[in-house]
Amino acid sequence: RLRVLSGIQPTADSFHLGNYLGAVRQWVRLQDTHDTFYMVVDLHAITVEQDPKVLRERTRASAAQLLALGVDPDRSALFVQSQVPEHAQLCWVLQCLTGFGEASRMTQFKDKATKQGTDRASVGLFTYPILQAADILVYQANAVPVGEDQRQHLELSRNLAQRFNHRFGKTFVVPEPYIVADTAKIFDLQDPESKMSKSASSQNGLIELLDDPKRSAKKIRSAVTDTGREIVFDPEHKAGVSNLLTIYSALAGRSTAELEAAYSDKGYGDLKKDLAEVLVQFVTPFQERVRSYLDDVAELDKVLARGAERARAVASETLSLVYDRIGFLPAA
Ligand code: TYM
């Protein structure tokens, strides 16, 4: 079986619809066909300031959400990044193979650093994509299911794998991005030209899976559309309506063509009302499952510890090989 790895940051109280449709939905499906490793990336989270208590809560809440969305800890290694020290160890090696200019060209760093001010931005934020490369390469992952916004980071991971292989002999699998075009970029409901993101200036366009379903339904009903009347999938000219159709299609398992036909004699209001209902039907039982996982934190921590153990078995093997190739002395 080919191997898959992906991760998600515990930096919000809830996952949003973009996280689920762009990434986690694929994680769940890939369990049927691949050997899967999924993690909550707490090391990445501390590249910006975190309150320790909140970080711990959000890390558990992230794991609970992954379980509630269908990550199966019997089939996948589900773990927390900081419990597998090999990520940080391999990261150091890869940092020494990355050019300063190369790291400086990462657009997510540039965006975040500009927002925070370069003096306040941490060096960890700068090396963030190299840690991500270590995450992927340490498992010899063949495929990495992510949303469109991670493409440049994956390109860096590929370059670093190839560079290491070229310099020290074939060591790493060169990973492929696994980006499903239909849902690779879910847009903000109020600003359908921008991706849905927790850091948007207004929260009105953001659907958080753990938010009050009534509030989410209301956000959908007040989504920005256009002055036309026709319900057609045309992302270029009808960004708002097309985004709603993408979300509807993914959640209800109906193609956008099927939805166009079903709504051919209906208005935007009908579409929004129905989609709001589909969303409520999805998040209500999801929230119940999350609560039940969080009711037994001891059990949740055990599941994660088991996942970390499985992950370490693979990661430590890669790291030993890497250390040997580089010329480090064996420890024993
Ligand atoms: P993060 O935590 O920002 O997001 C988790 C996943 O959600 C996807 N995503 C979206 N997809 C579609 N539309 C959107 N609006 C949208 N917003 C977010 C992201 O693309 C991502 O797949 N750097 C990563 C975490 C990471 C990682 C890794 C991923 C760390 N190490 C190794 C893969 C492999 C991140 O910040 O994701």
TrEMBL record:
Chief location category: cytoplasm
Any GO molecular function: tryptophan-tRNA ligase activity
Entry's localization field: Cytoplasm
InterPro entries reported for this sequence: aa-tRNA-synth_I_CS (IPR001412), aa-tRNA-synth_Ic (IPR002305), Rossmann-like_a/b/a_fold (IPR014729), Trp-tRNA-ligase (IPR002306), Trp-tRNA-ligase_bac-type (IPR024109), Trp-tRNA_synthetase (IPR050203)
Domain of life, source organism: Bacteria
Gene3D superfamilies: HUPs, Tyrosyl-Transfer RNA Synthetase
Keywords: Aminoacyl-tRNA synthetase, ATP-binding, Cytoplasm, Ligase, Nucleotide-binding, Protein biosynthesis
Reactions mediated catalytically: tRNA(Trp) + L-tryptophan + ATP = L-tryptophyl-tRNA(Trp) + AMP + diphosphate + H(+)
Sequence motif 'KMSKS' region, residues: 195-199
Description of how the protein assembles with itself and partners: Homodimer.
Protein name, UniProt field: Tryptophan--tRNA ligase
Classification of source organism: Bacteria, Bacillati, Actinomycetota, Actinomycetes, Pseudonocardiales
Gene field: trpS
